Amino acid sequence: MEGVLVSGTASADLTGECARCLEVLRDDVVVDLQELFAYEGSDTATDSGDDDVSRLEGDLLDLEPLLRDAVVLSLPFQPLCRDDCPGLCIECGARLADDPDHQHDEAIDPRWAALHALTDQTEEQLGRTHGPTEE
User: Are 19 and 78 within 8 A, CB to CB?
Assistant: First the structure.
């Protein structure tokens, strides 16, 4: 006998955010576990490096690293609230799933912004000088 073989199933409740729209996600995960915890003086413990084999500490074994690794590896890399999540508006940050017809006015190129402001001022001046005539 080289050690204690631990096998089983673990479940965990998950809470996170959608990678596109930042909506709160809640889910649960079920993972299968199987790990050999080697006895201190066994051939398995002495033949392999320190990090390769889980070891018993007296009569106790630490399941936390095994559980953490199994759960983390089962998580999606980019969790989504739904597969076709449109995400957030890149201009104002509005959630596009709540307002699918969300639009903004055409953005003015910053290089032309000063000219646009000048044309607005000119139109105001023309409106004052060529306004309605009094009779």
Answer: yes
pTM of the model: 0.59
Average pLDDT, the chain: 82
Sorted by where each begins, the domain ranges of the chain are 3-74
- How does residue 117 score in pLDDT terms, banded at 50, 70 and 90? confident
For β-strands 24-38 and 3-17, DSSP reports them as antiparallel
> 27 has which bridge partners?
14
DSSP H or E run through 8: strand 3-17
Sign for the CA dihedral angle at 101, 104, 105, 110 comes to negative
Q: Which of 95, 91, 2, 104 is nearest to 48 (CA)?
A: 2
The sheet with strand 3-17 has its strands ordered as 3-17, 24-38, 54-55
Angle at the Cα of 62 (from 60 to 66), degrees rounded to 5?
Answer: 145
